[in-house]
Amino acid sequence: MFVTDAYEPRFYDYNNSGCLSFEVMLQMLENTALHHTMLAHDALVNEEAAWVLADWRVDIANRPRRGQKIHVKTWVHGRARSAAMTRDFLAFDDNGEELFRASARYALVDLKTKRLTRIGEELFDAYGVEQEIAFPADAPKLKAPEEYEFAQPIFLRRRDIDYNGHVHNTRYIEFAVEALPEDAYRADAFSSFRVICSSSVEAGSRPEIRRTATENGWLFSICVEDKVCTLIQMTL
Fold first, then answer.
1. Buried b / exposed e along 199-224 (16+ C-beta atoms within 10 A)
2. Closest-CA residue to 31 (of 56, 8, 7, 12)
3. In the chain, helix, strand, coil percent, each to 5?
4. Are residues 27 and 68 in the same domain?
5. Neighbouring residues of 41: CB distance < 8 A, sequence distance ≥ 6
6. Which of 71, 142, 177, 178 sits at a 20 to 30 Å CA gap from 20?
7. Where are the beta strands (DSSP E) in 175-214?
8. Distance separating alpha carbons of residues 183 and 13, to the nearest angstrom
């Protein structure tokens, strides 16, 4: 089953360069995914379990700018015998020109036990699994660097926390944007980014973000008491 939604971003959804912010891009993807969940009548998730995002992968073909209407298509592909589901996305303009594409991996968590639970065939059937894929190959695995060039604390706000008491998955990319070097922040020339959530950053914790330069961008580690919880890769 393919689901497509249309968006007309607001003025404050864009950064000072006139480009759609990365967080708003993720919010659009997430909202369309929620629409798909509702159409699938995902009663299991509503009553007994919840989808928890494990990672984002986004490749940008044409960064949306002010005044563009954005269409986001989503679908589920594959039937992994595990607690994970892969969801793909394609964003395009009114002329059908690609703006960006993305893939997300969700885990199904039992709300009572707080443990991962397997996804049954009935649930896959409800989502209408498709054969189309956003990316022909998996992205290389990310490894937390041992050294970093810059670090600063993250002061969590109430608005950063979701209903589970964790930092919302769309917020991590903005933490990384704020920790960029000034020249990279102003140039805003990124072609892709990834967010890998290995463990949750909880409300009341005192996380730190660490920046490491790579060959074609930066890799950020969000740590709580030296435990790496999230990796964010931003590529030029």
1. ebbeeeeebebbbbeeeebbbbbbbb
2. 7
3. 20, 40, 40
4. yes
5. 126
6. 142
7. 192-197, 208-214
8. 22
- Residue 224 pLDDT: 93
Question: Residue 190 is part of which domain span?
Answer: 150-235
Q: What is the pLDDT of residue 80?
A: 59
Cα radius of gyration (the chain): 18
Q: What is the pLDDT of residue 126?
A: 79
Q: Summarize pLDDT for 58-72 with one digit per residue, the tens.
A: 999 999 988 889 999
How confident is the model at residue 163, as a pLDDT?
74
Helix, coil or strand: residue 15: coil
Question: Is residue 19 located within the same domain as residue 110?
Answer: yes
Tally of domains within the chain: 2
Give the pLDDT of residue 236. 94
User: Identity (one letter) of the amino acid at 68?
Assistant: Q
Q: What values do phi and psi take at 206, rounded to 5?
A: -125, 80
| Residues near 223 by beta carbon (within 8 Å), at least 6 away in sequence | 207, 208, 209, 210, 229
Residues of the chain with pLDDT below 50 are none
